[in-house]
Amino acid sequence: MSDATLSPADNTRPKRRSRLLVTLAGDRKAQFGLIVLALFALAGIFAPLLAQYDPNEMTLDMMAGLSAAHPLGTDDLGRDLLSRILYGTQVSLFIGISTVALALAIGVTLGLVAGYFGGWIDTIIMRYIDLQWAFPNFIIAVYLVAVFGTGLLNVIVAISLAFVDDFARIARSMTLTLREEQYVDAARTLGFSKPRTLFVHILPNAVAPIIVQATVSVSYAILGEASLSFLGLGVDVSTPTWGLILADGRSFITQAWWLGVFPGLAIMLVVLSINFIGDWLRDALDVRQKAI
Amino acid sequence: MSLLAVENLAIDVAVGEACHRLVHDASFSVEPGETLAIVGESGSGKSLSALAVMGLLSEGLSVGAGTIRYKGQDITHFDERARNQLRGSEIAMVFQEPMTSLNPVRTIGHQITEGMRLKLGLNRKQATARAIELLEEVGISDPAQRLRQYPHQLSGGMRQRVMIAIALSSKPSLILADEPTTALDVTIQAQILSLTARICRDHGVGLVLITHNLGIVARYAQKVAVMYGGRIVEAGTAAALYAAPMHHYTRGLLSSVPRLDTPRDLPLRPIAGAPPDPMQHVPGCRFHPRCAAATAACAQEVPKMEQRAGHEVACWNPVPADQTISEELA
Question: Does residue B85 sit at the A interface (CB-CB below 8 Å)?
Fold first, then answer.
């Protein structure tokens, strides 16, 4: 009886890479998101080729409406809006993605360490996070840029530090539950080190809420850069970003609707795409869910 | 030299400033290829003793006295680093719940090979080859296919087989199995137990089988230790102990399960009362409040383990060795 062998189930699971593709085939929203994001990425990379005008070149053709010469019109200084949005794509997308990557790396590590080791390590990390939590994200970013000056790198660091607390809290709360799991004890009885247990056995179980937070944060990061630009604390006045374009157009919105609508639409499309992609990744990476 | 020799082990829990003893004076040993069953109710200290051997007592718990020797070496006070060297490659553990002891987001293959690659220094290819051998040995068909699957695609029995394969993966000399079959149904229980016992015997691995079911271990264990309220109350070779159980608690355990040699309509006889609260101090023999044969002496002094009828028992009024259970029940 003890030698009875068990036959395998009929359905065999595809590998993780093909799992992503299999779930993508049935997910219209994810396809839309990937295509739109890819188009924006291409537009950003090839902006110098695609744009008809220099984004900062001023003409006397001010606040001209939509026309063949200026498909999205011009702004108050006569600069071509389409060219400015194309050039802005580079910076806005880069900021959106790199700030979240940085915030995720720092925040998740802090949260994992705090949750797993507990004690005074947890106290020190989480009291700092509480302190940061007490301030609105945007105030922290404004403060950091005001102190360290404007510029692409400073803006990225400022916005990502402002997001660290969200990731740290999520990672910590996940770790607190997961470290009580028996497979974590089992990993300890096999003699695996604590860092290994933490990153190889606990972290992969916590990805779902982290991905959701990351996709939401990309949108906030793009908007955060827009807000900083609006206050004149953005990347650089001569670098068009979506936020800066929107901020510049604000005063003339009653006379030129396109100055608000088109940069806003660009932000909205990217944020929406990233949310769709995030939902797809969350489901596709969850091995317990059935692949269709 | 025994593979594992635990002598007079005591485990304490810190309660505020005070210190309370949960396990007293526990001694047991295992030889290579031998199976020792530690039997007792929940709270009797059997799992704590196993965790002490692993060096994985949770915070607040500590070894208060006694020694744990592994291959002749005193490992009682090894530091975390030295303990970690032993875990997996020398001493491995199989847990109670196969449903929760496997990481749900890692493939079976990853989980079996991780220890081998880390502890034995095998490369991916060698580790995979060994993983396939191990899965075959624990009776899982089509192992190459299984390596790519996730735990939720396996049944409870298969998961416990995988857990045994993982425990064996880094070639340990001693395996501690903490109620390995509690979560499984009865037919699978028998399969898993005989599989574990057979593999350990074949590989010369010592096995400590922790269980609450005295009946189930009779076939698989060479030695048995019965624990009650943090003390070992009766111990010896399985043959001697089952031939003449002398402690009233051991008797109680055996007569509370159905037997083939008693009339079918005879009601089961449960042990009256409840096991003592581990945090409560009971003077004398810890079993005396529930014991039918208790005398005044039982409440006074803790009985010592004494050699009687081929095995050891700690009782002031042991059951006569020639009285069988069926006689007692009749």
Answer: yes
Q: Could B152 and A287 be called an inter-chain contact, meaning their C-beta atoms sit closer than 8 Å? A: yes
In three state form, how does the secondary structure of B219-259 look? Answer: CCCCEEEEEECCEEEEEEEHHHHHHCCCCHHHHHHHHCCCC
Read off the pLDDT of residues B23-57 as tens digits, 9 standing for 90 and up: 888 999 999 989 999 998 887 888 889 999 998 88
Tokens, residue B217: 């271990």
Q: Do B139 and A5 count as a contact with CB atoms less than 8 A apart?
A: yes
Contact yes or no for B114 and A12 at CB 8 A: no
Nearest residue to B119 via CA among A194, A201, A202, A190:
A190
| Mode of pairing for the β-strands spanning B223-228 and B35-39 | parallel
Distance CA A201, CA A184 (A): 7
Q: Does B160 touch chain A (CB under 8 A)?
A: no
Contact (Cβ atoms closer than 8 angstroms) between residue A174 and residue A115: yes
Q: Nearest CA to A53 among A77, A70, A41?
A: A70
Q: Which residue has the tokens 């069926």?
A: B326
A13: pLDDT confidence band, cut at 50, 70 and 90? very low
CA neighbours within 13 Å on the CB side: how many for B270? 4
Is ipTM beyond 0.95? no
Q: How far is Cα A25 from Cα B312, in angstroms, rounded to an integer?
A: 68
Q: What dotted CATH number matches A81-285?
A: 1.10.3720.10
- Tokens 């409870």, located at residue: B156
User: What is this structure's pTM?
Assistant: 0.78
Neighbouring C-alpha atoms within 13 Å toward the C-beta of A226: 26
Domain spans of chain B, in order of start: 32-51+174-330, 96-171
Shortest CA distance from B176: residue in chain A: A189
Mean of all residue pLDDT scores within chain B:
86
CB pair distance less than 8 Å for A2 and B139: yes
In this prediction, residue B329 has a pLDDT band, given cuts at 50, 70 and 90, of low
Handedness of CA B122, B123, B126, B131 (dihedral sign): positive
H or E element that contains A25? helix A16-25
Phi, psi of B87, rounded to the nearest 5 degrees: -65, 135
Instruction: Give chain A's radius of gyration (CA, Å).
Output: 23
Closest to B97 in 3D by CA, of B157, B41, B14, B10: B157
CATH class of B32-51+174-330: alpha beta
Residue B153 and residue A183: Cβ atoms within 8 Å? no
**Span A34-61, pLDDT tens digits:** 999 999 999 988 888 887 777 777 777 7
Q: Which strands, in side-by-side order, build the sheet including B4-15?
A: B18-30, B4-15, B61-70, B73-74
Residue B146 with chain A: CB contacts under 8 Å: 8
Q: Cα–Cα distance between A140 and A146 in angstroms, integer?
A: 10
Q: Is B310 in a helix, a strand, or coil?
A: coil
